[in-house]
Every structure is written in C-alpha cells, then in structure tokens.
Amino acid sequence: MSISLLWSKALLTDRRVLWLLLICNALGTVYGYIWYGLQLEYTLEIKPTWMIIFVPDSPTASLFFTVALAFILYPPKQKAWIVIRKLFEALAVVTSVKYGVWAVVMIFWGVALGDPLYWQDWMLTASHLTMAVESLLFVRFFAFGWKYLWIALSWTLLNDYMDYSQHIYPWLTPLLVERLDQVRNFTVILTFASALAGALALRQARKIRSLNS
C-alpha cells in the first residue's frame, strides 16, 4: 500500500477528525432541515403527514452520513445494531453522492438557463460536493455489503418516485420547472449512477482490504 494511502487512513480514522466531521455534518444537517422549513410546512398543509419524510432530500442524506460516522466512532456489538449500521452506511453513500451532485447540477443548470447566481449558491455547491466526496472516501471504513447497497438503491428510487409523482421534489426555479420531465429523468439516472459509484468504491475497498490481509 502506498504511503499516501496509509496516511489518509490514519488521518480519516483519527477520532479527532471523525468527531470534527461528525459535528460539521450534524450542523449541516440541522441547517438543511431549516432550509427546507417552508417546503416542509407547505407539504404538511396539502399532503398526508407520512410524505414529509420524502421532502428534505439532502439533509436526510447528511443525517445518514452523520450516523454512519457515529457508528465508526462507536462500533455496535449487537447483531440488530450491526444491521442498522450497515443500512445507514449504504444509505449514506448512495444518497450523499446522489443529492450532492444533484444540487450542484440543478444550480448551474438553472444558471445556464438564465437564473442568477447568488453567493449562497457557491456555499451550497461547496457543501454538496463535500457530501459526495466524503461519503466515497469513507466507503473503505464502512461495513456494509452488496445487499445493503441494493436496499439503498431501492429506497432512493422510491424517494424519486414520491418526489415526482406527488410533486414534493425540492423546490426548483421556474426555468427548471418548465423542464421538469428532463429534471426527473436526470434524477433517476443519477440515482443509478450514484449506486454504481458506491459499488465501485466498495469493490475497491474490498480489494485494498484483501491486499492487506
């Protein structure tokens, strides 16, 4: 194994780094739910209450990753909690890659169509790209396998279905709403691409572990 890879493993699994990432992601999760506040209220007014879980896509992805970091810090011993850990890890990878990339594409797709670019868009771009990158970086420290990746893919596809069949997708600018069919198609394709990215990262992680065993 290369020195840089050893160094990155030592860095990323350092408990101080893990705690820093957990706190940052937890704060980002809270901010994300606040960001969705108006849409959550609106959805509760016009839709069944249970649909609310499908509204805040990015904050929920960030929540999955935050919990996954907590499980690295405090690995569970009981079988039921191990299953929960693996499920959260797989969901963290697929949804963080998916919604991290999705948000950035929506921002600059809108800009290409004529939407203004605000300073908040740069903040959202940086934070969402970080979501995607950090989830893939941590795959080799996660415990989930292929079965859980399929579950995560199924959940994310269900989320896509709910978003675009019930019109509870993240609020878009008018120019993007005019192209909602294209946005929907891109979203579904991105779900499969995100699961594929997770699968490739998982395969690479297993290869690294086999070389060091």
Automatic annotation (TrEMBL):
The chain crosses the membrane at residues 17-38, 50-75, 87-110, 146-162. The keyword Transmembrane applies. Pfam families: DUF1405. InterPro entries: DUF1405 (IPR009845). The keyword Transmembrane helix applies. Keywords: Membrane, Transmembrane, Transmembrane helix. PANTHER family: DUF1405 DOMAIN-CONTAINING PROTEIN (PTHR40042:SF1), HYPOTHETICAL MEMBRANE SPANNING PROTEIN (PTHR40042). This is DUF1405 domain-containing protein.
